[in-house]
Every structure is written in C-alpha cells, then in structure tokens.
Amino acid sequence: MSALRLVVAGADGRMGRALIRAIAKAPDCALSGALVLEGHPDLGSDAGVMAGTPALNVALSADPLPLIAQADAVLDFTAPAFSVELAALCAQARIVHVIGTTGFTEAHEASIRAAARHAVIVKSGNMSLGVTVLADLVRQAARVLADYDIEIVELHHRMKADAPSGTALLLGEASAQARGVALKDHAVFSRHGHTGERKAGAIGFAAVRGGTVVGEHRVILAGPSERIELSHIAEDRAIFAHGALAAARWGQGRKPGLYGMGDVLGLDQSR
Q1: From CA 232, how far away is CA 234, in angstroms rounded?
Q2: Which residues are within 8 A (CB) of 205 and not within 5 positions of it... i.e. 6 or more apart?
Q3: Does the active-site annotation cover 160?
Q4: Residue 201's closest CA among 172, 233, 163?
Q5: d(C-alpha 114, C-alpha 112), whole Å
Q6: CB-based contacts of 242: which residues, under 8 Å, 6+ apart?
Q7: Residue 148: burial class (beta carbons within 10 Å; 0-12, 13-18, 19+)
C-alpha cells in the first residue's frame, strides 16, 4: 500500500512543525505539501528542515490548489477563515480534511457543514486521543450525576489567541449533550462583581493564560458534600499530531460527512 499523501496547512506554526515531524516518523505517511501564507520569508525552502527533521524534498508553498490536487488529506491547525477556505477546496477535490482549528463563528461552522456534504471532514477542538476519551467520561458523568454543578477550567500558554479553548468548549458540549440541553443556553464564560448565586444547570468556564503551558483541562462536578474531577494534561504537542494522523487514516474511504474524534475511536457518543 502506498503512503498516505498529507498536506500540512500552517506548516510554520507550532502545530504545523509537530505534524511534519510526526509524518516524517510514520512509515505509512508522506508529506506531500506544506502550506504557509503568501509572502512568508521561507517560501520555497524545505519543510522538513524548517521543522527540525532531515530534508523531505517538500518546499514551503502558498498555493493550496496544486497541493490539494495531489493529496489524500489536509491537516489543518490554522485560523477559522483559512480553514473554511480549505474545507471548500477539499470538498471539490473529495479528499479528507482534518481540522484542529478553534475559534469558529456560527457562519464558519455553517460553511464547514456545507463542505462536509462532499468531503470527509474530521473536526475537533482537540485531536488528542486522551482528550477524546476524557470527553466520553465527562459525558457519562454529567448524565449520571445530573444535578451536580459543572465547572471547566483550562490553562494554556500566554500566546494562545482564543478563550475558552476549543477543548474546553468540546468538554462543555459533551456535558450539555449528556443533559439534553444546548451549551449556548447554559454556558457561563465570566463572573465578576456581585453575580448572585449560581444558576441551576449552568456550565461554567474559566480560562487561565501564562508561560509555555501546552494545555491543561479540568472538569469539576460538584455535588452535595463531594466533588469529582476529571482532568487531562498535555505534555507535548506530538499528541495532537498523532491524533490528526489517526483521523486522516480513518477518513480514507469514508462517506462524506462531518465527524469527530469520537468517531475515529469508535466511541458511543449517544450515551
């Protein structure tokens, strides 16, 4: 079987470099393209060398069309507007689009759903296999402990641009789904001043930023005289890259649609 041909979007970013390094180590995968923004000072240079691996004979490019035409999947941890653009191109080419980008608006989400009518799109606020299992555990706990208060705390590096994190929102969605409610109607994203007592059914979020923390998430279920805490600590971005590769492999030959990492792991998300 020939190697899976993968294009990395945002190849010069922290996640882009981690993806390139993971692909270089995977015997069943090959880097077929590396996308950066137009005007990047390193355009045309070797993507492997930029990422800290031996040369991979793949030049950094700002033109997605020829790369997507020769690829089996695009791995995309970029920005919402660019992810939407890539989703449309992947739909035209009928290839797999793995999206780890966060911070989408409702309009962005609608565009991605439209693209998923023609392409396999695996989209998640966190590609880690461990976080995917954590979300499943949170879903079960929130359903069984239906009257317990839920608070989600996340900690990330000082350069992170969005809050709360996509992973925190993913865990919030898992909690809301388990209780049969819409997260947008129950989420509390900030507290300041005299807020009054906590509303029943609220799902609270707290975002902490500082240093070089890769990512930490804690889900607190607080009930009468006891508290359950479910947590995940990311120690290396390689975990997200490994999950993205798993998603790209899983998506080959699937019917077009919008999928998540729970689908990749075969988890029953209806619980």
Answers
A1: 7
A2: 151, 152, 153, 154, 164, 168, 172, 187, 188, 189
A3: yes
A4: 172
A5: 5
A6: 22, 129
A7: middle
> Which run of H or E residues covers position 29?
strand 29-35
Query: Tell me: the pLDDT tens digits for 111-137?
Result: 999 999 999 999 998 899 999 999 999
The CA-to-CA distance between both ends of the chain, in Å, stands at: 37
Q: At residue 270, does pLDDT exceed 60?
A: no
Closest CA to 152 of 128, 127, 176, 169: 169
Residue burial 169-194, b: 16+ Cβ < 10 Å; e: rest: bbbbbbbbbbbeeebeebbeeeeeee
Three-state DSSP class for 65?
Answer: helix
Residue type, 50: M
Q: How distant, in Å, are the alpha carbons of 42, 107, 178 from that of 269?
A: 43, 25, 9
**Catalytic residue chosen out of the listed positions 123, 156, 186, 232:** 156
Is 40 part of the annotated catalytic residue set?
no
What's the pTM?
0.86
Per-residue pLDDT tens digits for 175-198: 999 999 999 999 999 899 999 999
